[in-house]
């Protein structure tokens, strides 16, 4: 992939901000670090424009097709990935390629990107660095919101639960309706960005397409089944991973309904803050894999249900261990729209 980086000049100071970066021909100033994980770092950056040009007429505005993706104040999220070998380089290139396939308001758009060669230093052995630019959502992920709400013993309302979930369904519907269909493969609260809106339910956006692949795979041997399981163990979060990705038969047709399983787990998590199977990790002799493969859902105990029983039944419907009887995204959307009509305030 012909990713270039022109005029690169970066100095990183996560504590104090500072440092300028050019992504291709557009200049950004690092404001602060937002997060990190593995070999990736996420920074809040601000586009630097000349005195004679405004943010709305700056360099990025000329490149981005959808003006709704532009920031009013010129701030964005920049993901920096340290790449140590050719395998990692190909994974980043694939993430960039796949991200460019999607265009939907509930899927995080990739606004710009660059990959550069760097000389290894004493601090690290990486030989490439990738820079991916996205819209910024400073209200954090669903996971971040769970932690903040848990500290206050707070929960989303039934209406907000359904509206957040409906938006995730819309994003996945876009991915599943492509030709060929794509599966996200890592739907979980940590990959859902929220933006709180006054008088409305939060805006929900699905992000991180590093694990997204064509959804439909024909498994015709034990070695292919084991390869799929190994791939899933590296790319799909365990508490949200579908049974067929834990124990794949030697003859199976795997499809986008792996996302439906993760979606059911995520709906449970929107309500209760965790996957429906994480309880197994805290039990003596408990097995997360067995709990998932057998669909042993455990509902929170209490004298009063926080949410309508219809939502519990909805989750159970999505968490069918046999993928052939698990609903598709169109079925899910039809049902959630009925629930929204029933429980809307």
Q: What would your notes on this structure say?
A:
Belongs to the protein kinase superfamily. Residues 28-340 form the Protein kinase domain. GO terms for molecular function: ATP binding; protein serine/threonine kinase activity. Strand 8 (192-195) and strand 9 (203-206) form a beta hairpin. Helix 4 packs antiparallel against helix 7 (257-272). The strands form 4 sheets. Strands 1-2-3-4-6-5 form a 6-stranded antiparallel beta sheet. The protein has a two-stranded antiparallel ribbon with strand order 7-10. The protein has helices spanning 59-63, 86-99, 142-151, 158-176, 222-235, 243-246, 257-272, 288-293, 309-318, 329-343; strands at 20-23, 26-37, 40-47, 75-83, 112-117, 128-134, 182-183, 192-195, 203-206, 213-214, 217-219, 252-254. The chain has 345 residues and is α+β, with helices and mostly antiparallel strands. The model is unreliable at 1-17 (pLDDT under 50). Helix content is 33%, strand content 19%. The chain is globular.
What's the layout of helices and strands?
Layout: E1 20-23, E2 26-37, E3 40-47, H1 59-63, E4 75-83, H2 86-99, E5 112-117, E6 128-134, H3 142-151, H4 158-176, E7 182-183, E8 192-195, E9 203-206, E10 213-214, E11 217-219, H5 222-235, H6 243-246, E12 252-254, H7 257-272, H8 288-293, H9 309-318, H10 329-343
Antiparallel strand pairs: 1-2, 2-3, 3-4, 4-6, 5-6, 7-10, 8-9, 11-12
What is the structural class? alpha+beta
Any idea what the radius of gyration is?
A: 21 Å
Determine the fraction of residues in helical runs and give it as a percent range: 25-40%
Strand proportion, as a percent range, falls in 15-25%
Q: Provide the number of structural domains.
A: 2
* Unreliable runs: 1-17
Order of helices and strands: EEEHEHEEHHEEEEEHHEHHHH
Q: Mean pLDDT score, rounded?
A: 89
Total helix count? 10
- For CATH, the homologous superfamily of the largest domain is named as Transferase(Phosphotransferase) domain 1
User: Quick one: how many beta strands?
Assistant: 12
Class of the largest domain in CATH? Mainly Alpha
Largest beta sheet: what is the strand line-up? Answer: 1-2-3-4-6-5
End-to-end Cα distance: 49 Å
Shape: globular
Family: Belongs to the protein kinase superfamily.
Binding site for ATP: 63
InterPro entries: Kinase-like_dom_sf, Prot_kinase_dom, Protein_kinase_ATP_BS, Ser/Thr-specific_kinases, Ser/Thr_kinase_AS
Domain Protein kinase: 28-340
């Amino acid at each position: 992939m012909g990713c270039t980086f022109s005029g690169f000049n970066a100095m990183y100071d996560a504590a104090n901000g500072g440092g300028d970066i050019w992504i291709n021909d557009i200049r950004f100033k690092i404001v602060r670090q937002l997060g990190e994980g593995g070999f990736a770092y996420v920074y809040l950056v601000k586009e630097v424009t000349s005195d004679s040009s405004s943010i709305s007429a700056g360099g990025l505005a000329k490149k981005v097709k959808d003006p709704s993706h532009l920031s009013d104040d010129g701030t964005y999220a920049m993901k920096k990935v340290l790449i140590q070998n050719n395998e990692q380089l190909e994974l980043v290139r694939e993430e960039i390629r796949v991200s460019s396939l999607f265009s939907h308001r509930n899927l995080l758009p990739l606004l710009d990107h660059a990959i550069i060669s760097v000389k290894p230093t004493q601090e690290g052995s990486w030989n490439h660095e990738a820079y991916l630019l996205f819209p910024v959502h400073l209200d954090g992920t669903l996971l971040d919101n769970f932690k903040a709400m848990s500290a206050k013993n707070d929960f989303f309302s039934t209406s907000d639960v359904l509206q957040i979930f409906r938006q995730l369904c819309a994003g996945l519907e876009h991915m599943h309706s492509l030709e060929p269909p794509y599966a996200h493969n890592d739907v979980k609260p940590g990959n859902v960005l929220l933006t709180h809106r006054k008088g409305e339910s939060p805006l929900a956006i699905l992000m991180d397409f590093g694990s997204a692949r064509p959804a439909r795979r024909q498994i015709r041997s034990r070695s292919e089944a084991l390869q799929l399981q190994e791939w899933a163990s590296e790319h799909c979060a365990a508490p949200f991973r579908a049974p067929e990705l834990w124990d794949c038969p030697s003859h199976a047709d795997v499809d986008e309904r792996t996302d439906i399983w993760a979606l059911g787990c995520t709906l449970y998590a929107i309500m209760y803050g965790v996957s429906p199977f994480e309880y197994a990790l805290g039990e003596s002799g408990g097995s997360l894999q067995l709990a998932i493969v057998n669909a042993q859902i455990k509902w929170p105990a209490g004298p009063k249900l926080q949410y309508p029983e219809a939502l519990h039944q909805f989750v159970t419907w999505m968490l069918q261990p046999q993928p052939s009887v698990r609903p598709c995204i169109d079925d899910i959307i039809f049902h959630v729209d009925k629930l929204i009509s029933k429980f809307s305030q």
